[in-house]
Amino acid sequence: MFGLQILKDKATREQYDYAIAHPEEVFYNTARYYHAYYGHKTDPQYVLVGLLLILSGFQYLNQSTRYNQAVAMVKKTPANKNRLWALELEHSGGTTTKKKGSKQMDKYEIILIFQDK
């Protein structure tokens, strides 16, 4: 059954004859076999679109992680905490809805404060 698949058309028959005539070129013959057997089944456009989708997903995850790290760093730095607190006070007209001990802001509040400026 397997031999019939190799010898079914002229091109694969020629590759088979070449492999028999040149056994020292094992890697070349193996590459030719796999190219003939698997190479023509996949459309290059679909491969390119799939690759771009995967790379875009990795890029999105990377940017999201870097953004979250930057927001966390801004929240941890004392100078930035004080500035964010002052900007919130300025934005709200001098009054806050938060308790005195709770100065932690979430990332959406930080974005809103910086977008208003």
From TrEMBL:
GO terms for biological process: protein folding. It is found in: Membrane. One of its GO terms (cellular component) is endoplasmic reticulum membrane. It comes from the Eukaryota. Keywords: Chaperone, Membrane, Transmembrane, Transmembrane helix. Its main location: membrane. InterPro entries: DNAJC25-like (IPR044632). This is J domain-containing protein. The lineage of its organism: Eukaryota, Viridiplantae, Streptophyta, Embryophyta, Tracheophyta.
